Amino acid sequence: MNPRNAIAASATLHCVTGCAIGEVAGLMIGTASGLSNAQTIVIAIGLAFVFGYGLSSLPLVRSGMGVRRALTIVLAADTVSIIVMEIVDNLVMAVIPGAMDAGLLDAIFWIGMLISLGAAFVAAFPVNRYLIDRGKGHALHHGAHGAHGAHGEHAQEHAHPDHGSGQAR
Description:
Blueprint: H1 3-33, H2 37-62, H3 67-95, H4 107-133, H5 138-147, H6 155-159
Helix pairs in contact: 1-2, 1-3, 1-4, 2-3, 3-4, 3-5
Organism: Nocardioides ginsengisoli
Keywords: Membrane, Transmembrane, Transmembrane helix
Protein name: DUF4396 domain-containing protein
């Protein structure tokens, strides 16, 4: 696999995982609280951002970076990707008959989530790849991560398209 595609896939997977955790948590909260679909969606989207940023921040903090610096990098790296994912995910869920009204124990809910998150991944991957190719987005994450030793000497090669093609780790 092309190293930049590997980084884009990894970035997209981090985001979609965080989005999935946040959305399911938001839907559980909304359902348990008897909130409307609109209120539940707002909570789910908010938590998708929180968990998406959180999952991307963990490796940076574990590598010794301060929380504030890690969050600054993650906000710059993941915001566009999460926005794209949330738009696509919610649109797909809205068009699947019964998915928005299904409970957490209904098969249509989980089938809808799988389809919508898959579509969100497909939509966000080219966004992440575009940002990486321009030294932005998740390339910022990998550049900072590499600077703290976790991804090694090749991190800067990924952050800048004209520096060669190192191997993703």
